[in-house]
Structure formats: structure tokens, C-alpha cells
Design brief:
Layout lengths: L16 E7 L18 E6 L5 E5 L11 H6 L2 H12 L7 H14 L4 H4 L2 E5 L5 H8 L3 E5 L3 H11 L2 E3 L8 H4 L2 E7 L8 H7 L4 E12 L1 H4 L15 E2 L2 H10 L3 E9 L5 E8 L5
Parallel strand pairs: 4-5, 4-7, 5-6, 7-8
Antiparallel strand pairs: 1-2, 2-3, 3-9, 8-11, 10-11
Helix pairs in contact: 3-5
Length: about 280
Amino acid sequence: MSGPRPTLGCPCSGHHLVEAFVYHAPPTGEIGLGLAGTEYVRAYDRCALCAHWFARHKIDLAALYQRGYVDATYGGSAGMQARLEQVLALPPERSDNVGRVARILAFAGARFDLHATGPRLLDIGAGIGVFPAAMKAAGWTVTAVEPDPRTAVHLRETVGVEAHAVPVDSLTATEIGQFDVISFNKVLEHVEDPIAMLVTVQPLLSVGGIVYVELPDAEGAAHYGSGREEFFIEHCHVFSAASTALMGSRAGFAAVAVERLREPSGKFTVRAFFELPALP
């Protein structure tokens, strides 16, 4: 077995990494699908320069999703719909999504004439559709990308948005058009090379468009110990404000805003808005 090889294309080549957390058993609440019989040893290494955290282990992460992730997590399609309705019904003071939507609408509204443009959103890794549903209700045309075909069906039939169960790098502007906002909500931490994924979506961004990312915040969560969900095994990366801005820059974007917050759910989060620099 081989574990993840997380990278941010760092010019220091990992020379400033310091071992931070070491695990010999799963923390409470971590998804353990497909890991029975696998020796559980893993660690996070923290960069002393940019405060980014990199996962280090030899566990095959593909096994996490090989035994019915949707069934185990939601109880199938009906469970996805029930969970969607439950989250959308949360009062504003308890909803991470309410704050997310308000922040994006305010930011986009300051850049675009939303009534004139008919704004378009591409949500990468849309999950059960909490964010797409809210943005659709706000008047946006939403396209979602989710690798599980059953989840894509749920997004089309229950949420009522266009959905594709395909790799991100297979999407083309010719096929699906361009978008005013492309969002990655708690997605990029799951991939080994988030910079490559950000580069992939550049052709899908309309002129003047923005990329929105949400990421687990290591700087906030680390103070509360290794059992935090920000450090669960499925996260190849855990970010700092500095490493978030660096990631965007290495992908060819400029960071317009980078913010840290603790969400109503208790999650520590870094959120950022990126734009493509204007051509000279």
C-alpha cells in the first residue's frame, strides 16, 4: 500500500517540516470505511515557515470509499435527501452554510451586477447539495460536480441543479460554459495536489470571475488537540492563512481576501477568494 503524497509545490522541498501529531488509532468520529485489518499509523508534519500541515502515512485512502460511502454515511439516496432537509432547516445561528452564502453573495455583489448578469456558479465537490440549493434559491444558475453517480442523481433530482459525475479535469468550457464563481467548499484538503486542481478550472472562469475556497484551519484547530476533525485521515492537507495564499499564487491566482473564522458548527476554517490577474 502507498499513502498520499501531498504537495503544494513548495520551493523549500520540505526542508522545514516538523512532526506535529502522530496517530496509532482513529480519533473519535473519523470515518473508517474499508480500513479493517489495516495497520493504523499516521502523522502530520507542520511547515515551520508557512504553518501548513502535510499528511504522512502508508494507508490507501481509496479504501475509505470502496464499501458504500453513501450507504454508510447517509443510508442511501433517501438518507441524502433527509440530511439535506435537516441541514437546510437549521436556524441561521447554527448554520455554517448561511454564513458561507451570505459572504459569497456580498463579495460577488460588490464585483458583479448580479441582476444583470444572471450569475453562474460551478460547485466542485458539491456533496449532498446544501450550498447549491441555497445558491439556487438566491437566484443563481448552479452546476455541481460530484464523483459519486448516485450523488449526482440526487443533486439533479432533489436539489434541481445540473450535476456531473466526472473528474474535474475532464470539464471543458465548450461543454458547460464559464462561471462567475467557482467554489471548493472543504474539497482541496482531500486531494494530493490542490494546485493542479485549481489550475484545471482556470478556463472555466469567466472574465472577472472569482474562485472561492474553504479549507480546514490548522492554526485554530491545533490548539484543541489531535482529535479535531480538521485532522481526520481523509485530509491530505490542513491549511494556514499563509499556505492558502501561497497555494493560490502557485496556481496562477491572486488572493483578493483570506480570512480565518470559527464556524457555528465549531469547525476552524480558512476561506479565501482568488482571481486571475489581469493580462498586461
